[in-house]
Amino acid sequence: MRTRPLKVALLGCGTVGSEVAHIMTTHADDLAQRIGAPLELAGVAVRRPDRVREGVDPALVTTDARALAARGDIDIAVEVIGGIEPARSLITTAVEHGASVVTANKALLAEDGPTLHAVAEKHGADLFYEAAVAAAIPLVRPLRESLAGDTVNRVLGIVNGTTNFILDRMDSSGAGYSEALDEATALGYAEADPTADVEGFDAAAKAAILAGIAFHTRVRLDDVHREGLTEVTAADIASATRMGCTVKLLAICERAADGRSVTARVHPAMIPRSHPLASVREAYNAVFVESEAAGQLMFYGPGAGGAPTASAVLGDLVAAGRNKLNGARGPGESAYTQLPVSPMGEVVTRYHISLDVADRPGVLAQVATVFAEHGVSIDTVRQQGKEGSYGDAWLVVVTHRAPDAALSATVEALRKLDTVRGVASIMRVEGE
What we know:
Blueprint: E1 6-11, H1 15-26, H2 28-35, E2 39-45, E3 61-62, H3 65-69, E4 76-79, H4 87-96, E5 100-103, H5 106-122, E6 127-128, H6 140-146, E7 152-158, H7 161-173, H8 177-186, H9 195-198, H10 201-215, E8 225-226, H11 234-242, E9 245-255, E10 262-272, E11 284-291, E12 295-302, H12 306-326, E13 348-358, H13 363-373, E14 378-385, E15 392-399, E16 402-403, H14 404-415, E17 420-429
Parallel strand pairs: 1-2, 1-4, 2-3, 4-5, 5-6, 8-10, 10-17
Antiparallel strand pairs: 7-9, 7-11, 9-10, 11-12, 13-15, 13-16, 13-17, 14-15
Helix pairs in contact: 1-12, 4-5, 5-10, 7-8, 13-14
């Protein structure tokens, strides 16, 4: 074993960063054996230097993150600050001064991953980011390496623990969205401002990363169609139950049937309870991968939290350390296909539509005519009178697969019918 240690700069020391420092210290001997050289924490960049950080030598703490990143003796920089800036500048600085980088920054990778990859390529550095998607679940490396010889056609997954906890509570207890969110917040699953989670921004960033890796093309956050779960109601959950389904916020990345384009989207969807993703409970994550040779694969585990995320960071740290010792470099960006990302309107999917209609003869025929005019085939129809209301009824329609644009246009046309009082809910049906 080499006696000179590999020097590590820790950029950020919050929940994840402090756990990384803790594991580096408590498992130092094992990590050294696995890498072939000891790891030395050479500096820790923070915003609040006076805060007590258990297991971190105060002498290593600095508020000058740029100076730490620019030190020429740093072998590996671990970025766990998050956000776009200063993270992007710090990563670039570290690479330019000879360091490889391990990051958990999904937002930055989804926004400007190609730039980071280009800088790493230019300077012969590693850029690893297993922790950016689904925390401890090994997913990025299997897609980048284990399935590198296969053709991935679809990635379908639950990649946000907060939203899965909320929807699971709504499904299992009958709670409304607000009540389930309050419980998630009380248990620490949801941030004080849960917007990034419940509006789908977090999942969309992860979808962009997964689509880019799976399809060897560049997919940015702006390319991902995004819908959150704030409009999901207890009635939607109950309707899904009657269909033998449950509701999940899904990240879906697909290669077109002709192989000439890809799509990436995040939205709530009904999935059959027989699908493996339907059994994913609480704040867990799971990703279902479909490829030509390997077939169907599922990756499951805790998708958030300090220790699970730190586990993924340490895995990358070991890989980067080994490469440093061997003068090697891990896989870089693979975007050779340069496939276009199709808009949501071209996605082929199914709709579950709940209509508030007048309960009189001919209404169903009118509704069916609208579907036919837009080229959308109906799979099932269920009509029932509204409790406590005479002359009104609920009409629930589930379609066959059709382009999303046609389905959306159908809904808009239905809104204009005199016999339709309103469109109570719309939800896509996936996973069949």
